[in-house]
Structure formats: C-alpha cells, structure tokens
Design a protein that fits this description.
185 residues; alpha/beta; five-stranded parallel sheet; two-stranded antiparallel ribbon; globular
Amino acid sequence: MQYVCGPSWDQRVVNIDPKEKVALLMSGGIDSLVLYHLLSRECEVEVYTAERDDGFDSPKKVESIIGHAPNVIKLNPTHHSQIMIQAIESIKGQDIYLGLNVQPPIEHFPQFDIEGRPYRPFYIPFPYVKAPLLHLYKYHIVDLAHNEGIDISDTQSCLEYTVGHCGRCWQCREISWAFDMLEKK
C-alpha cells in the first residue's frame, strides 16, 4: 500500500508491502500506533514491546492503545542504544517492523539540542527489519494519522509524565513542533 503524507511543501510517500504475518516492535507513541494500524489493514500483526514498569513504552500503555496485550520481551539491563538490538534479536522467524522516524536536524532547529535527545538510526542493518517511516518527520506521521482516520489522542511519548505531556522534554517538543509545521500548510 502506498500513502502520501505531509504538508504541501514537504510531501513524502510511504510504501508498506508486508508479508501475511509480521512482528511489530511497539511503544505507546504516535509512530508505532500509526504503523500498527496501517499494517493491520494489510496483514496479521504480532505486537511486541519491551518489559517496562510504566511510561510510554510499557506493556500496559501499548495494551491500552491497541486493545489487546502485546508480547512482552524481557531485556537485560544495558545501555539504551542496545535495547532495540536486543529486542530485534529476540523475535525470530518473521519480518519485524519498527515505527522509527527521522529527528529534526538541530542545525536548523536548535530547540532540539537538549538532553534526552533519542538515538534514531538512519539505517537498519538487518534485512528482515523494516522501518517504512524512517524517512519521515513527526509532522508527516501526524498528517498520515489524520489522513487515515487514526486516533492518536491516547498515545504517550513524554519522558517526564506517564500520563499527559510536560511540554519540556525532547519528545513533547517534537510533537508540538509537528503540529506547528502542519499549520504551515
């Protein structure tokens, strides 16, 4: 399936062509929820999330936004950059989808040069791992959700609050920036 999203001044194309059954490594955020809905229209999706106590990527949060319990991956305590690799390696035998997207460049948006900036790779070195949103900014994904009738109001990405948005952390700034960019249509 092909989707066009984003404001008229920066439209992007998303192609999703899954196999009959795929895995989705999911958080409780906008990106993975949008990808979950798009994939669910095309195939059977087996949802995985990392074992966490609370917050936007807890199994409880993921269950609340998709309506059923995800598979929970138990991870060894490690550096944050290794969590995704550990999770990917624990899912065997099927294509794995990730809702990763690109970060706003701090050279043009210095408000994002703060502590808490997440690591988001530009390249996924595993042939069975798919990241169809990797070339999108958050505003593309918000626009895609709107165009496709996907309710993102219950998603959670804030690093400080488990419910609501602080407005100060990196993820809250990115979401606010996304809505601001869409107003410039």
